[in-house]
Amino acid sequence: MMRGDRAAPAAAPAAAAPPPPRFDFNDPRIPGASQPKIAIILKTLSEIQELAQRSGGNSAGEYLDEARRIETAYLPELMISYFAIPEQHRAEIFRRTGKSASFQLNERLDTIIDELQEIARYFANGEMEKFSGNLKFIDKRFGSNHDFE
Question: Against a cut of 0.85, is the pTM above it?
Answer without folding.
Answer: no
